[in-house]
Amino acid sequence: MTKKILVVDDESSIVTLLQYNLEQAGYTVLTASDGMEGYNAVLESKPNLIVLDLMLPKMDGMEVCKALRLQKINTPIIMLTAKDDEFDKVLGLELGADDYMTKPFSPREVTARVKAVLRRSTATIEEVPLNADSSFEYGSLRVYPDSFEVFLRDQSLEFTPKEFELLVYLMENKNRVLTRDQLLSAVWNYDFAGDTRIVDVHISHLREKIEENSRKPIFIKTIRGIGYKFEEPKVV
User: Fold this and answer.
1) How far, in Å, are 5, 53, 68, 123, 233 from residue 64 at the CA level?
2) Which CATH architecture describes the domain 4-125?
3) Which residue, 14, 101, 139, 196, shows the most beta carbons closer than 10 Å to its own?
4) Long-range residue pairs from 123-129, CB within 8 A, at least 24 positions apart, any chain
5) Could you give the C-alpha distances from 124 to 127, 150, 167, 198, 228, in angstroms and in order?
6) Quick one: angle between helices 12-24 and 107-125, nearest 10?
7) Range(s) for CATH 1.10.10.10 in the chain?
8) Cα separation values, 21 from 16, 26, 93, 106, Å
């Protein structure tokens, strides 16, 4: 089935450029010219991925992203901005964006990013048999990679595709210290040189969801000056 991409941008030239290149790559492209229209289009059309501009009339990209995540809509989001501002980048990721690109960009780069994000989310959610036996269980935490499910004390938790992929990768490498660069390469799958804060933001998200006290984590440990390690909690 053809994947649907929603492009939300108020610059018609950018919309036209992205629509042409994404359609050439085989996607069905929906468009919206302001944040409110984009938000409603997500609810009505249920796209597979959203390319979302930061600066939009009526409802900016940050507000759209936050509103969707509050509705438990975990559709992957690639945020676009004309600003080369680290604060905006981190804030966008904290609100639930999966990727971030600064204008000007090449249409080929956007298409490559879209393919990469869709490939990861599709492989995680759709392409793996739901009846497979693989799972992780550590204390009160249970994770089922094949069905995209996480339970903490038998309560189901909500994750974005990127958060889920990071958690599974950490679990697959239990007790192994992983650098931020290793995590960027394995989970984001392309060069984010100098942007290791992206890893820190997503680790913070995971801790808020799976740790009883995110400031004193028992699962995801910080290895000062190196990176992170997933540990099975000790039974007292």
Assistant:
1) 16, 10, 6, 26, 37
2) 3-Layer(aba) Sandwich (3.40)
3) 14
4) 124/148, 124/161, 124/164, 124/165, 124/168, 125/161
5) 7, 13, 12, 20, 22
6) 60
7) 136-230
8) 9, 9, 25, 10
CA distance 226 to 107: 35
Q: What is the distance between the alpha carbons of residues 6 and 56, in angstroms, rounded to a whole number?
A: 15
Q: pTM for this structure? A: 0.65
- How confident is the model over 87-106, as pLDDT tens digits? 566 666 667 787 878 888 88
> Start-end ranges of CATH 3.40.50.2300 in the chain?
4-125
How would CATH label the architecture of 136-230?
Orthogonal Bundle (1.10)
Closest CA to 209 of 176, 148, 167, 168: 167
**What is the C-alpha to C-alpha distance for residues 93 and 75, in angstroms, rounded to an integer?**
14
CA distance 121 to 148: 10
Q: How many residues does the chain have?
A: 236
Whether the per-residue pLDDT at 56 is higher than 70: the answer is yes
What is the average pLDDT value for the chain, to the nearest integer?
A: 84
What is the distance between the alpha carbons of residues 92 and 52, in angstroms, rounded to a whole number? 11
